[in-house]
Amino acid sequence: MKKLYFVTVNTYKTTEVQQYFSVPDVKLEFVNYRIQEILNLDLDEIVKDKTLKAHKYLGLPCVVEHGGLLINALQSFPGGLSKVVWDTTNDLLCGFIPKGISRSATAKSVIGYCDGMRIHLFKGETTGTVAESSRGNYKFQWDPIFIPDGATETYAEMGFPKKGQYSQAAKAWSQLADHLKKSIS
Questions:
Q1: Domain that includes residue 98, residue range
Q2: Which three-class secondary structure state does DSSP give residue 111?
Q3: Residue 67 forms beta bridges with which residues?
Q4: Which of 84, 111, 124, 146 sits at 20 to 30 Å (Cα–Cα) from 47?
Q5: 66 half-sphere exposure, CB direction, 13 A CA radius
Q6: How far is the C-alpha of 164 from the C-alpha of 170, rounded, in Å?
Q7: From CA 115, how far away is CA 120, in angstroms rounded?
Q8: Confidence at residue 35, expressed as pLDDT on a 0 to 100 scale
Q9: Cα(175)–Cα(159) distance, rounded to whole angstroms?
């Protein structure tokens, strides 16, 4: 059985990915290691850098993930800085959108996989809106303010595993799983 190492310190991610990721003959191992992230609005650039750092640390096939909330009225801000902005402002972020302006946003997740030879990126997106204020008990970063299209609840109101029906991370992990299945067969 092949092992793939997911490098993260985020317990929400480790809990969720166990539901999203299933590949025959691949065992996902979790490595609790904090990677110093670069500050950049571009999720792809952050993930490429994190993937290189994770592979340098482990020297083994590994995967990292980074997500962001891209708010249309704010020219896709906070994007790759979503964790930093959320940790600083929490639901005050809702007030960054002026009254009468569309509250549309895209939740995006990018996974970086290094097979030892190159970095592969896998992306998932979910469109939706930013709530007027924080709602719900599932406190995974900006989940309390994001309402996916087709739903009336925020991710935090849905909680997990219901959130998985819409999750941008689930979509990205599915792409990685498909890639690995093809490379194994």
A1: 2-184
A2: strand
A3: 109
A4: 146
A5: 30
A6: 6
A7: 8
A8: 97
A9: 23
From the list 79, 85, 87, 97, the residue with the least C-alpha distance to 133 is 97
Give the confidence band of 4 by pLDDT, cuts at 50, 70, 90.
very high
Name the residue among 48, 47, 92, 94 with its Cα closest to residue 68. Answer: 47
Structure tokens at 38: 């670069």
- Residue 23 contacts by C-beta under 8 Å, 6 or more apart in sequence? 177, 180, 181, 184
Are 48 and 119 in contact by the 8 Å Cβ rule? The answer is yes
Q: Quick one: pLDDT at residue 112?
A: 98
Domain of 62: which CATH number?
Answer: 3.90.950.10
What number of other Cβ atoms are within 10 A of residue 84's Cβ? Answer: 12
Residue 68 pLDDT > 80: yes
Q: How many structural domains comprise the chain? A: 1
Residues 6+ apart with CB under 8 A from 87: none
Residue 109 · residue 155 · CB < 8 Å: no
* DSSP class of 181: H
Q: What angle do CA 156, 139, 171 make, to 5 degrees?
A: 60
